[in-house]
Amino acid sequence: MPTGARPEPNRSACRAAQEPHRRRTPARRALCAKLVRLNQTTPAIVSQDAVRRLPRVALLLFCIAYVVPGFVGRDPWKNADIAGFGYMLELARGAASWFAPTLAGQPPEFDALLPYWIGAWAIRAAPAWMPPDFAVRAAFASLLALTLAATWYAAYWLARSPQAQPVPFAFGGEARPRDYARAIADGALLAFIASLGLAQLSHETTPALAQLAFTALTFLGMAALPWRTLPAALSLLAGMAGLALSGATSMGVLFGLGGLATATLDREANEGRTRAGIQIAVMVAALALVAVLATSLDLWRWRIEVARLPGEARSLVRLLAWFTWPAWPLALWTLWRWRRQLVSRHVALPFWFALVGLTTTFLTPSGERSLLLALPAFAALAAFALPTLRRTVAAAIDWFTLLFFSGSAVVIWVVWLAMQTGVPAKPAANVARLAPGFVPTFSVAAFAAALAGTLAWAWLVRWRTGRHRLVIWKSLVLPAGGAALCWLLLMTLWLPVLDYARSYRTLVSGVLQHMDRPGCVEVLGLTRAQIAGLRYHGGLDVRLASRRSSCPYLLVAVQAAAVAPLALDMHQWQQRPIRVRRPVDRTEELLLYRRAPGR
Q1: Is this prediction's pTM over 0.85?
Q2: In Å, how far are 112, 120, 482, 543 from 411, measured between CA atoms?
Q3: pLDDT band at residue 233, thresholds of 50, 70 and 90?
Q4: How far is residue 266's CA from residue 352's CA, in Å, rounded to a whole number?
Q5: I need a surface site. Which of 98, 275, 345, 386 has the fewest CB within 10 A?
Q6: What whole-number distance in Å separates Cα of residue 99 and Cα of residue 104?
């Protein structure tokens, strides 16, 4: 707008147009709306019609349909899933120290305590008829549900910030703060569920899921602190302590420092020094709690590997692109459109959480598990892009999502039909080649759940493509629904073959059938996951091999066969071992030795 004497009469005309005795002509309305847009400090222009409520029952059922599949009807899977379960089972049985978990004398790969405690408590609290692995998965399913709830509430309280509010209209009709925040929170939850990297890692019984839940709690505590001081402080303290006890102490400290800086720099918080002072005090207390826990329990760990950047940067970028899809392009759009509010809480806080997760991904060996912790922040950033999206962009997202997930669902159904009937022949042959020995089974419950999910997807597509008013969370309905549909189909129709391929039950059965007296077995070169499988599925007393062996059997990983004569006295064992192989993986082979006669 040109400068000079002309803008002041225009502003006067805009104010006059809002007076009751003035006639609100179309020209004055247009002039006032233009002035509002030119002088606005927020890019969000949202009417009350655009924040209509997503039905709570539908949202709850949607979350249940995403959480439950993957936790029921299966064995513990290789590798991290069954390894984590193995340490939990050892604690529950009293075979390891609670402050130094071990499995056959080996410490866990991840220096965590609380995730293993949660699993062990679940096993001890479960009734006798409940399998231990299901008891653990039920507890971790609760952690995933907690993560979804914390992500929703974190986005809600961020959207309640004054600088996050949409532009006030000249004559009213803009979205009310509570309804606007609820719509943003719905969008954040949908973006979180739609993230492709969430599905598998969030359904495993590993420290990564516990870290994700405590990251979401920390995120919620910092987001809600200006609004609900006591509940937010409890959430923050619980989240930070949980991160320290779950092997993510350093990330917890970085999250806390970012939250402290946000509370200090946020202009909204500084308007009331008492509220800002309380926030800073809570942040400092949370950081102190992390420091005390980490120091007293020796939980400080740094796994920085800067040397891996040049060789693996390209693969990590590809991981970032698909793992956080579709949240990352929306998050970038948020940072651009809200660039004038980068120090405001609703932008700065999720940006810092996402930045810490991204940096850790590039500097630690467990890249995807570090990136998992950034997903709640990515989802919150993506949600704030929704009020600023153009219809053409929203339509492009819809069409891409519709084609991708509908095509994926068709493929899953066709392969399942081939497994059941042998038609089409090529997919059936591929399954037989990749999973030799697998015998397909038909489950009425699984088929009914898959059919219901497919019909729900068809209804959702019809609703999304129908002619009705635009709501801001509408653009993420199809991405979240498609991700949930494909996960549901995989965990129902394909679950038997996936369980056959990823469980160690077949390998352990092959070992047991060659043992006359299953009981004690020594191992050399086996992974933690293989040891956990032998202990759980076979009930074997697994011990690390030594020269003074006392067990009647010895299991050696084929990769360690060359060093076995150097590490052990092989004269104690028969020289012709029995080869036991997992049917779906020719590289995973074990050599079973019997003790030589007279030894």
Answers
A1: yes
A2: 39, 39, 14, 44
A3: very high
A4: 14
A5: 98
A6: 16
